[in-house]
Amino acid sequence: MDHYQNVVIEYLRADRALFVNTECCIQVNPGKNPDTSGPHWYCDAVAVNFRESAIYLCEISYSVTLESLLKRLQAWRDNWDGVLTALRRDCFLPEGWPVAPWAFVPRDGFTVLDNGIAQMAKSGPTRFEIKRTPLEDAQPWRYRSWDRIANNGADAR
Predict the structure, then answer these.
(1) Of these four, 15, 61, 95, 125, which has the most CB atoms within 10 Å of its CB?
(2) What is the C-alpha to C-alpha distance for residues 77 and 127, in angstroms, rounded to an integer?
(3) What parts of the chain have a pLDDT lower than 50?
(4) How many domains does the chain have?
């Protein structure tokens, strides 16, 4: 886990309605060893938001190109039914709750992310909408650690 993953995990945990499983293995095909069972990914964090009744697959990147993140999003798009099945089977996540990727990238990377998503859309529709948060907003001085309310009084959720 790199430094920024820890910063984002603390940001997520500061919202008391959100529960986080870090480095969660999403294994499409059941099996004893994900390395031999088929497609699988270690998601930086799976966040379950009880306030929204929603599940987020959180990925954190400060890469300039966001190449790995975009490849991950493409792989999830290509295997979306399997991703949903795996989360419900292995993590016992509720049926019917929406699942979406949540990207934490530098604010300057949003254009790269948008362009990558537009490229992905050319090869077919995506069945999820990507939530995004600038890494800069996850800095600990930007919110109160016990309820993620911004220091200026604005709700940072």
Answers:
(1) 61
(2) 7
(3) 152-157
(4) 1
Tell me the residue range of the domain where 121 lies: 3-142
CATH number of the domain within which 22 lies: 3.40.1350
Nearest to 13 by CA among 53, 43, 63, 58: 58
Instruction: Answer whether residue 151 is part of any domain.
Output: no
Q: Which tokens belong to 10?
A: 């603390």
Assess if residue 69 is contained within a domain: yes
How far is Cα 73 from Cα 120, in angstroms, rounded to an integer? 9
Angle formed at CA 100 by CA 97 and CA 103, multiple of 5 degrees: 150
Flag whether 39 is in a domain: yes
Encode pLDDT of 64-108 as tens digits.
999 999 999 999 999 999 999 999 999 999 989 999 999 999 999
H helical segments located in the chain: 3-13, 34-37, 67-78, 80-90, 110-121
3-state secondary structure of 38: coil
Question: Which single residue is written with the structure tokens 């069972």?
Answer: 37
- Which residue in this structure is represented by tokens 């500061």? 14
Report pLDDT digits (tens) over 93-104. 998 999 999 999
User: Is 85 part of any domain?
Assistant: yes
Question: Can you give the pLDDT at residue 156?
Answer: 47
